[in-house]
Amino acid sequence: MRNLTALDTATASIPSGIGQKIPHESAERHVAGSALYVDDIREPQGLMYAAVIRSAIAKGKITRLDLTPVLHAPGVVTLLTLDDIPGITDIGPVFPGDPILTSDMIAYAGQPIAVVAARTERQARQAARLAVIEYAKEPPQLDAEAAVAAGELVRPSHQMQIGEDIDLALSNAPIRLEGKMNVGGQEHLYLEGQVSMAVPCEEGGMLIYTSSQHPSEVQKLVAEVLHIPFNRVTVDMRRMGGGFGGKETQAAPWACLAALVAKKIQKPVKLRLPRVDDMVMTGKRHPFVNHYRIGTDEQGRFLAADITVIGNGGHSPDLTDAIVDRAMFHADNAYFLSNARIQGHRARTNTVSHTAFRGFGGPQGMMIIERAMDDIARRLGCDTLEIRKRNLYQAERDVTPYHQDVDYAPLHQIIETLEESSQYWLRRAAIRDWNANSPILKKGLALTPVKFGISFTVQHLNQAGALIHLYTDGSVQVNHGGTEMGQGLHTKVAQIVAQCLGISCENILITATRTDKVPNTSPTAASSGTDLNGKAAEQAALILKQRLSDYLAQTLAINVEQLRFADGRIWWTETDSKCFAEVVQDAYLARVPLSATGYYKTPKIWYDRTQAKGRPFFYFAMGAAVSEVLVDTLTGEYRLLQTDILHDVGQSLNPAIDIGQIEGGFIQGMGWLTTEELVWNPDGILLSNSPATYKIPAISDAPPIFNVALYEQPNPEATIYHSKAVGEPPFMLAISVWSALRDAISSLSDYRISPDLDTPATPERVLTAINALRFAAKEAE
Amino acid sequence: MQFILNQEELTVENFAPDTTLLEYLRTQLMHRGSKEGCASGDCGACTLVVADPSPNGLTYRTVNSCITYLGSLEGRQVITVEGLSSSTGELHPVQQAMVDHHASQCGFCTPGFVMSLFSLYKQREQLTQQERLTREEINEHLGGNLCRCTGYRPIIDAALSLSTQPDAFTEQTQSIREALLTLQASAQTNVPQPSLTPSSAFFHSPTQLSELIEWLEAHPDARLVAGGTDLALDTTQQLKDIPKLIYTGKVAELKRIEVTDDSLILGAAVTYQECHAQMKTHFPPLAALFVRLGSQQIRNQGTLGGNIANASPIGDTPPVLLALDAELRLVSPEGQQTLPIKDFFTGYRQTCLPKAGILESIRIPLLDPADFFRVYKISKRLDDDISAVCFALRIRLDAKGCISDARLGLGGMAATPARALHAEQALLGQAFTLEGIQAAQHALTQDFSPLTDVRASAQYRLEVAANLLTRAVHEYLTGTSLEVSHYA
């Protein structure tokens, strides 16, 4: 450009670097309704709407498929079936097994069979219902344990072990316990359902707007189904209305189908799933069946553990391999297991393919050991907290079953602080008194810790890229491989760049995640968004900072080390400075490149799966929660009265956002363990298929007393500003609610019996547990 | 059809009668601030505010725009999230509070929360200048807005922080009110005759009962729509086209609320919200149930008449009205009749409503001071959930402390809401004690063979129904509530 813009060089910059509680970058647009989601983007001329024709049965074969009535319905412009697909037809993200459409075999209810496109969304959806499909039905496999017994697995089983002879150690243990429990799955219920819009471009290419946590995978799969090179496909992803793992792999099918129809009719196509279709056709958190046999000494300390987890993978592998691995990696939670054997099976059943969901198997794995803690305490007549503390990782007892060392100090500090701040022991005594005087309503209390491993367990995913442009008015555009789903990633990345360049976040715009800006990105998952992309953005910012510094130092004939970037200015003495934008303009005129890419890969991690040994996690995020509940022994209804949380986020990049993640994760975890019940009928049809029948927490479910604090010790590892990942770990703090429910029920036996309580612990399951415990107590007399 | 959208008067011509407000805003006007989360009134992402003239100003009520028919907005003001900020982009205080408290994460539910908070803000301004909002009021008002990200704490804090200052809408109240009254008057002068209307499709809003009956007679294939909170699901979930709709919301006779010496009389088109105050005065346990019936958005739209005439086995008011011996007045071209509500339900979603007839009003006898009356709702979630069991009990004790009269109305236990006649019989003459109810508890298995479904098992329903009798006895004897929701 020939003429540079005039600058206001006097404006002071608002502090918005790391550690500041600045609002979400889109907060003002969220509240004004001007933040655009895929369905809000103004449709291009000539756009057609697609709807999916899906299987009504869970297992069998299509014997007749007549789509003529669909084609003849008002407004219909085309149909897409398997034969129309030019490229690959199996879009399994890691392993094969996910046919994009089926024309013969049915593996689950809701499986896509064909796609119809019409002039309006309603016409497309109405037409989709006119398909005439006849099936030869077969009985579906819906039982994960039976599937494993029959060898029906989506992936081979895996085992990890520490210690030598587990069976011997078990049989020598003075105290032995065993148990089994069902841990339910969970529907993501992101408020924005799955949606994609495909716009054909020149060179046979395709521009995809999608609500996806993994734009690069959408790009790859769209290119593969269209049979075109990856460079012809661009994926644009500004924001999601929630993801939680549900848009990691399972956003891709809808993008691929939209692209295939768009290619066929050479018109833009939008495919948005109605809520019921979304709930029926996309995978959920894996339901698990867990077994354990444990042995402890007289103090309740583990001597041996034999744990088996069975993840219900649904009809295909999807991410099940890694999810069951993560359940196994977290079967110890915060406790040293001494001699342990942990087996994981991946059952194949006739449901939709279960997928990533906040915690990625970790929560399901942790449930076993937290259950065991309660059971040991009841057996020994100790407080559950006492048993938990005895078993924590500690000196000499600090190696996980996969042979990674644990830095256990924060766990102890967190629990001790929380014990004090929540007045655990005072309340414990008060609750015993209260229960003694309350025949119908009973209170329960529990403190549970969380230790969660941070890093993708698939090593190559632990990398990220970023791209930063400085413009000659001093404004900065940042792009990186992470996606914004509400977690505040873009806000934190902007803060990191602002910190590096000494400018305000107001001067920084984070633009839509796009595969043509930063390529070959990893999914925004595993809580890794900020750890990876924040580091990559920091590196790009540091490169630009270096270039500006070199240039300025040269013109001023000073040392680079003298320069300080702060308050929107660059300082070379305490009093002499130049406005950041002015330096950028000068640098431009001096032909200094003002754009840079950054890259990061996580150090230190490795894992040898054949040996089940290594350091899969760069570090652990930790926390603990105390929850108090009130249970009605006549109906099983309950309320959460109070929760106190202390959670480890390292040095917080943005305490407001971190607290938001902790509170939100906790409540979502509470929903998983209490009211969120997935119900399939014996034919494999999902009955809980809408928010009318599937109940996520609502506002009254947030406890009236909810104290959340940050344990703000810098991460000893060299993470971005020594922060810690926060997306998933707090989810598992909700186990305290489940344990408190068990505590309240156990009070009916004067804390002698540990009740079975499968999850979700709906009022009905709580009442069933109460009845069973009363029966057992009577038997024991 | 004319209405006011934010500040602008709009005339809509030639719309499909079953067009929803949300569909119209998003696809015709390209107002995309309001989101579709479920299209079934269960998530609140599409929440908008509708303002209606009140005697002195305007009432502001939230609705789920996804299940609100456009035609029902004639002569009303619709306020959307786009209309809240000033023309210069300055945020409304409720929007600013949401920003200040970090109350949005993904932001998709946020416009709905903002609108619910806005209606709360406006109601508060009318009520009091001093009092702080309570957590209960906030729960009651926002229970129909789901957020999957925040865990609600910052939203609650945003609500608690709301000031009572007049906002930009305050000064426009009178001018909007005048404009709405003018629109309503002009709508009334242009009433089409049923025979003159094209027979293919219409959304008609009669203003008199006789007119309503005429239209029903002329169009036996038309659907009657009151709040529409259930019927609209045929449109958005079943994808049925409903070309002929007759709206009850403007019929004066159907909107009456009357208290006589011995009864509360409610027109069938009275919404839950409209009669809430009367319920609080005369039937406190029923008013408490209302807070858990649907959501605020649903209670603003849904009507008592709709809940009864719909004859769903899981509607929450029929069990209670059964226990209260309510009477229904039915009107049809053949005339009118009054019958006890227990005779109204004839089968699964079947009633004895005559052809072209409607439920006109409900008469609820006021409680005797000697009546012990309780209503319990059992569901997985406290807010906005459908009952697994809805249980209403009304007993009267004689001078000797024996039960002289007993009514047990239950929902979720059979194909229709029903009284537990065997159990009622077994209570007569008994003391209201744990021993005295035992026979009645056993008799419940004679009265009901409930189903197992997505909400609960048959076994649980039966057990809980019996246990709720136990709860009632404890509450009667101790005078304290045993509902866990009263403790948190």
Task: For the structure shown, list the relevant keywords.
heterodimer; A: 781 residues; alpha+beta; Aldehyde Oxidoreductase, domain 3; Aldehyde Oxidoreductase, domain 4; five-stranded mixed sheet; 19 helices; 29% helix; globular; B: Ubiquitin-like (UB roll); Uridine Diphospho-n-acetylenolpyruvylglucosamine Reductase, domain 3; 16 helices; 33% helix; 20% strand
In CATH terms, what is the fold-level topology of the largest domain in chain A? Answer: Aldehyde Oxidoreductase, domain 4
Instruction: Decide which structural class fits the backbone of chain A.
Output: alpha+beta
Average per-residue pLDDT of chain A, rounded, comes to: 97
Largest sheet of chain B: 5 strands, mixed
Query: Given the helix and strand composition of chain B, which structural class is it?
Result: alpha+beta
Biggest beta sheet attributes of chain A = 8 strands, mixed
Task: Using the coordinates shown, work out and report the CATH topology of the largest domain in chain B.
Answer: Ubiquitin-like (UB roll)
Q: How many β strands of chain A by DSSP?
A: 29
Number of helices of chain B: 16
Sequence of strands across the biggest β-sheet of chain B: 2-1-5-3-4
- What is the average per-residue confidence, as pLDDT of chain B, rounded to a whole number? 95
Spatial extent as radius of gyration of chain A? 28 Å
**Low-confidence blocks of residues of chain A:** none
Termini separation of chain A (Å)?
90 Å
Greatest chain-chain interface? Answer: A-B, 90 and 84 residues
Radius of gyration of chain B: 23 Å
Low-confidence stretches of chain B: none
Beta fraction of chain B: 15-25%
CATH class of the largest domain in chain A: Alpha Beta
